[in-house]
Amino acid sequence: MKLLIADDDPQLVRALRITLAAHGYEVVAAPDGAAAIALAAQAHPDIVLLDLGMPHLDGVQVIHALRGWMTAPIIVVSGRTGSADKVEALDAGADDYVTKPFQMDELLARLRALSRRSAPAESGEASIAFGDVTVDLVAKAVSRAGAHVHLTPTEWRMLEHLARHPGALVTRQELLRELWGTDQVSDTGYLRLYMSQLRKKLEADPAAPAHLLTEQGMGYRLVV
Amino acid sequence: MKLLIADDDPQLVRALRITLAAHGYEVVAAPDGAAAIALAAQAHPDIVLLDLGMPHLDGVQVIHALRGWMTAPIIVVSGRTGSADKVEALDAGADDYVTKPFQMDELLARLRALSRRSAPAESGEASIAFGDVTVDLVAKAVSRAGAHVHLTPTEWRMLEHLARHPGALVTRQELLRELWGTDQVSDTGYLRLYMSQLRKKLEADPAAPAHLLTEQGMGYRLVV
DNA sequence: CGCGAGCGTGAGGAAAGCGTGAGGATGCCG
DNA sequence: CGGCATCCTCACGCTTTCCTCACGCTCGCG
Lengths: 224, 224
Description:
The structure is a homodimer.
Chain A: E1 2-6, H1 10-22, E2 26-30, H2 33-43, E3 47-51, H3 59-67, E4 74-78, H4 83-92, E5 96-99, H5 104-122, E6 127-130, E7 133-136, E8 141-144, E9 147-149, H6 153-163, E10 169-171, H7 172-180, H8 189-202, E11 212-215, E12 219-222
Parallel strand pairs in A: 1-2, 1-3, 3-4, 4-5
Antiparallel strand pairs in A: 6-7, 7-8, 8-9, 10-12, 11-12
Chain B binds a DNA duplex through helix 8.
C-alpha cells in the first residue's frame, strides 16, 4: 500500500513517515502542491494524505488537479476546522477530512477504512481459471468452454476450497474438516468419489487429470 | 438515493429527516439497533447514518451485523469524541465518523463524498432481460413478450434480488434475510412457493425452467 | 513375479430437498 | 359486510444428492 504525503511541515512529515512505515505503508512525501501533483503522477499512490495549508498552490486546487486523472482516495489533513473549508474540500473530491491536531490511531483507522473500500474494486480475485474451466467464487458458478457446469453442493465446496488455494497442496484432513466437519481420518471414501465426479465434469481426460491432481498419501492439488 | 437513519433521539431524527429530504434524499429511520438491521435488510439503503449510543444493541455490533451482508457506506454519528471509539467503529466497518454536534453542511458534504465513491461500484444495470422477459429495476416493472406482468410485492422482491445478481447463485439464507429479515433456516416453504409462482408467470415451461434455476441444497440462480 | 496399499469408478438404496395444489388466515377497499 | 388479493401452512409425490459397497487398476517393493 503506497501513500503520498503532501505537507510543508517537515516535523509532521517525519512523524507520519515513521508511524506509517511502521504500519506497513510505503511512504513518499512532497513539500508543496506542485510537487505533490508531480509525485502522484510518477509514483501512483494508493492513498493521498493532503495538507490544505501549503504554499504556492491551494489545497483545493491540488484536489481538483489530482481528481482530473486519478481515483485514489484523498484524505485532507488541515488545521482549518470550519465547516465551509470541509465542504469545499470534500466537494472538490476529497474522501475524508481530518482536523489538526489529530490522534494517530484515528488517522490509521480512517486509512484502513478507505483502503478497505477501494481495495476490492482494484484487485478482485473473484475468479480463477484453469484449462478451459473458469471458477467464479463470488457467483458460485463454474463454466467450461463457456458453458455452465452444474455441480452438487458437495462438489462445489470441494472445488471452492481447492480454488481458494490454487497450486497449494490440500490435505485430506483439511478437506474432511471443511466439508464434513469431522476429523475422522478413518475412511476417505467420500473424497475419492467426489474428486472422481469433479474430474468427470471438469477434466478433458478424467483418467489423466491435468489440473485436479492427486498427491499420493497426502491429498489433492489444483494446478492452474 | 435512499438513506437509513438509526438514532434514538426523535428530535435529531426529525431535523435530519427534514434537511435530508430537502436535499433530495429518501429517508427511512429506526429508533434502535435491532430495528435498524431489520429495516436495512428490507429497504436497501444506499447509505446508513448510525448513532452509536442506542439502547439494547451496541452500535459496533450493529456495524458488524450490517457488514455481514451489505456493502453500503456507513457513517457513524456519535457524541463520543475519543479516538478509541472512532478506531473501534471504523475498524468494525464504518466508512466515516462524525462527532456531535456537527454542522449539517459538513454532513451533507460527507454524504456526497461517500455516494460519489460508491456510486460506480454499486450501479448495476437499470434493466435486465432473459428469454422474452424484461425486468426494469428502476420502474419496478416486469414485461413478458411486451405485455406487462403483474407480480405481488413478495414475488417482485424475490425477482429483484435475483435480477441484481444475474448469473450468481443466491443462497436461501440470503433470500430469507432479504425478504423476511430473518435468519431462520428452519423451513424454506415460502421460497419454494414463490419461486413456483414466479416460474408460472415468467417461464415458458414452469416444469422445466430455463432461467430461474434451482441449485439443490444451495439456492437459486437467474441465468440470462 | 507376487503382493499389499492406495486410488478411481460404477451401481444402487436411503435420505434429504424440491415443486405444486388445496385451502385457511389476514388485511384492504368499496 | 362481502369480495379480493396476498401471504402462509400443510401434505404428497417426485427428483436429486449423498453415501456405502464392491471391484479393478497402478505402483512401489521385496
